[in-house]
Amino acid sequence: MVFSSARARQFDAQFERLRRTFSRCLSGEAGIVLVEGAVGCGKTHTLEAVTAHAAKAGALVLKAYGTSADRAPLGTLRQLLDSPRLPKATADHLREALDQGALDAAQPRETPGGDPAGGTPPHIQGAREFRAALCELASREPVVICVDELQLVDAESLQYLLYLATRSHSAKLLMVFAQATDSDQKDAVFNTELLRQPNFQRLRLERLSWEETTHLLTIRLGLPDSADVAYTWYEVSGGNPLLLRAVIDDYRTAGAPPRHGRAVEPVVGDMFIQAVLTCVYRSGYTVSRLAEGIAVLGASASPELLGRLLRIGSAGTRRGVAALDAAGLVGGLAFRHPYVEAAVLEDMDPEVRLDMNRRAAVLLHQGGGATLAVARHLLAAQAADEPWAVPLLRDAAQQALAEDDAKLAVACLELAYAACQNEELRAGIRIGTAGIMWRLNPSASERMLEEPLAALYADRLPAAHIGRLIELLLAHGRIEEARGAIGRLNTVMSNAGPTSLAQFRMTARWAQDSGAQDRGPGAARQSEDGGASRTPLRSRGPSSLSTITAAFSGFFGRGGSEESPVAAAEKVLEVSPLTDATFEPIVNSVNALVYAGRPDRAAPWCDSLMEEAERRRAPGWRAIFASIRAEIALRQGNLVESAAYATTALDIVPGSDGSVFIGGPLASQILAYTAMGKYDAAARQLSRPVPEALFKSIYGLGYTRARGRYYLATNRINAALGEFLMAGRLAQLWELDQPALLPWRSDAAEAWLELGDREKAANLVSEQLARNGAGDSRVRGVSLRLLAAAGDIENRSRLLGQAVEELQCSGDRLELARALDDLGRTLRGSGELGRADAITGRAWRMAKECGAEELCDRIRLDSGLEARDPRPVVRPVSGPLGPKPTVPPSLGTKLSESEARVAALAVDGYTNREIAASLFITISTVEQHLTRVYRKLNIRSRQQLPTALRAQVDEIA
């Protein structure tokens, strides 16, 4: 048993007193013992120990217990007659006495004046007969009467017992009572009269101490005798033996094995929950209501507020809280464990709980309680009918957002929306909720826009909210609907100037009218003959990539000054904390870096923002950044990484199949799997259902392109061409026809090349180069590669060399591998086998690093390389591979010239043997240079080398 095992010393000392009392009883001296303790602290066990000892000594044991379910007059004492050892004659005598007493209790007694009688028991004769029968029995053998739950015994039974206790000092009779501490149902007269008896003793049972809890865990679970081990067990159980035994049983039921020498966490299960409820409701009506009040009020609980909420006096409140504390259920005015609070709340009558929460909200509001505390009670009551409720819920939503509790903020606004009667305010609440829901689930946020959209189409949406609706539509990429909303806003505000897309913070115009792009040093520009020249990059005018920061132009104080789009985007990212107000500009800024050709700068920002979103419990934000990160990885040629990020974005957002958001990560997955050669996996993603609205959104552009790339890779050329052209038409319609955003012309050119129409392919690529200008080096590199394929053989090597240069600047290793492969085949066709083998080997290794197995196989088959090790033997060449690398000052000051050259080639994928052959040094020297580079840059491998070290070569030797 828990009681005897956990606290043997204290129990033995108390039980020794009981044994001595029983010994005196055997010699004819009656005894009275009152065992008190909180519910679950061992009172019943003590009675069982007494009865077992007495029965073993030959005494007649009569047992009864009080219960609130049966308060019939003398009902408790009738239980004494159930003992099988009670002689029949005595049982009959006792029954007659009890029957007489029941009749007397049922008949009102009047005074000579006609009023009901006062304090004299009306059934004194029955009590005398009852005492006489028991004393006669005790004259023949010792009698022990045990009554448990004394506070629940009916009043008539208490009067009989009190009569017996006060008039039986010289009898072989022991009376043992057990009673809950601090119960509001105790009979004060009965307890006071017992105290006056010379043969009365009181035993107080306390909760287990830390040491006793530790000792018990050592015995029952074999845990080390350490207070550290028992800490959480004591906190959960409060030292209540009943609760501790329940936690131990739950732990064993869960099958958790004991771990010697290590802390073992308790398991809270059904046994513990039932034990908690037993402790609460056996403590009496008032105590159980106080437990419910504490559970409802939570951190707002105070004695005064509890009393007002439950309409209980201050004395009753103090007594009830003391009872809960004595049972180990509460510490102060808070439950020791959240599971205890949850169990009490769950067991409450639903209507009672709703009403109690409603009244708690009113009382807290009247008393100037915290806004969030009042709001939580309104939410629990699902009622906001007070005139102050809607404004308070809106304030609470803002406070919840400040604490990064978006779920609570959304719940507050949903309740405010349901209770609000003002249509304009309701519209604002719904649109605001959609903006906040983005933190949690972009798909759910998008669905919330359907209602204000319907109101807009019905001309019921107030003009004050149309602007924010447009911003959200654009942020979700729903371009077609945003265009319609802008038209309606222009109609409503006919006196004002026309509204354009550029007036809103939006995701849709990351690359519109791109002019000067921030690129790495020495970026290539197109020359008149369609090639590329090495002229310094100059700004041609304001770039609309800067429009992503339009909302912050006043904040930065730039006025009309021009600023590089990359610098502007990074300034936004550097100074803007991640909040609901800054989320869209931050997303736009990251995208600006991506579409300005700087995925290398966007990646660390995106990683940091993903971590922050997870830390701040914003899975929706994390999904958005994961989707962007998938595209960044794709633009860097990291196919496996791209697919993984896209999967993360899709897994974070439940129910995304009905949202246009699904198009973003799905497109990345399809493109990645297609490039890997995993066509079955790509087909499975293409078979996922997508909403029709996807193809009216910016995500539809990427999805349509991805579907076309899959068709192209699986030899459905005409279908692929149709997809690319459809994406192009939509981009033109929406004024989003920018190659950095959607290179549909180069995609279509590949399809035309497969169909044998080199002229159409060349025209499309030339048009794309013209639109790109001195823009994205990735777009230029891909375009030059395709232009080489569509052009004459004599210009092919030169164009492919320029393509390689551009793609090295872009950081897209997959497209670089494709260009190198084309260059290797061209050189092989012209008989330059040494250079062809070296370049083809580089192409294969890059494709392998990217995870593009299909490209690896094609390179191997086309070049005739060995299957086991397709890297060719490096043949001596006539000179080094290009000029000295251009190293940023921050790195150049750390590295020597030789170290920088070696590191630059390592970044480009050369092996140590190839670097040695290219620079005419030994492999050992290469290894020494790299070791010093790693130490100076504080990195550990060549995979961590900064891409800024990449060599920029004028000629592939």
Structural summary, described in words:
Helix 12 packs across helix 16 (338-347). Strand 8 (525-526) and strand 9 form a beta hairpin. This protein has 957 residues and is mainly alpha-helical. The radius of gyration is 42 Å and the shape is elongated. The chain has 46 helices and nine strands. The model is unreliable at 1-8, 111-120, 500-561, 871-889 and 951-957 (pLDDT under 50). The strands form three sheets. It has a five-stranded parallel β-sheet with strand order 2-3-4-1-5, sandwiched between helices. The protein has a two-stranded antiparallel ribbon with strand order 6-7. It is 60% helix and 4% strand. The longest helix has 19 residues, at 8-26.
